[in-house]
């Protein structure tokens, strides 16, 4: 049943986006250009410094392919998770509360963002043309990319759910959410000490940028297990915070109705 309504939303969202075909294609191409400029920047960097803490240009390209794919997967298909603070503050969750079950699932899949579909396509195409990989490495790329997308999703859901508790928290949640995107676009190997610890705990950018690269170039079952465990923990926290916060949202509406 859940798969069916996911496909229903996906089909209708894509049809709506393709109604303005030129706009859809221009947004996707615009993101391609944006991502390409970032890759050119890193190519120029590695021409001057061929090795960065053990990473070569190929590793950097795998990292960039992975983060664009995972970012596009999360926000291209589940954009509403990034809009959660806005939806809470403006009372727009009422629409989703009318569904018989699966409030979060309906909320997450109901808004597709074409510009991020460009990210989702850019990552695999980048590696297809510039990084030779085996079948196993491709499998690991898509697997770790999907796991990294779940980390993005979980982090944004957790931070966005703070709006249930803090109300006008859009600026705070926006700044914190942007931080993980910013740090995940850099090799976390350049960070040391408490900053590196932070990037594998509170702000889990390391699981998005570094771990997928390590697994693609040198697969280790224990490292994949650690990433799966991290996803389970972050997703579990996110679901707990969201559903607890949702009860507060419902209570607030009841108070308003009584008034």
Structure explained in plain terms:
- It contains 13 helices and no strands.
- The protein has helices at about 1-20, 20-50, 55-75, 85-90, 95, 105-110, 115-130, 135-165, 170-185, 195-200, 205-210, 210-215, 220-259.
Write a concise synopsis of the structure shown.
By secondary structure, this protein is mostly helical.
Rg over alpha carbons: 19 Å
What is the CA-CA span between the terminal residues? 38 Å
Strand content: under 5%
State the order of secondary-structure elements, H for helix, E for strand.
Answer: HHHHHHHHHHHHH
What low-confidence regions span 5 or more consecutive residues with pLDDT below 50?
254-259
Task: Outline the secondary-structure elements.
Layout: H1 2-19, H2 21-48, H3 57-77, H4 84-89, H5 94-97, H6 103-109, H7 114-130, H8 135-166, H9 170-184, H10 193-198, H11 206-209, H12 211-217, H13 221-258
Keywords:
disordered C terminus, 259 residues, mainly alpha
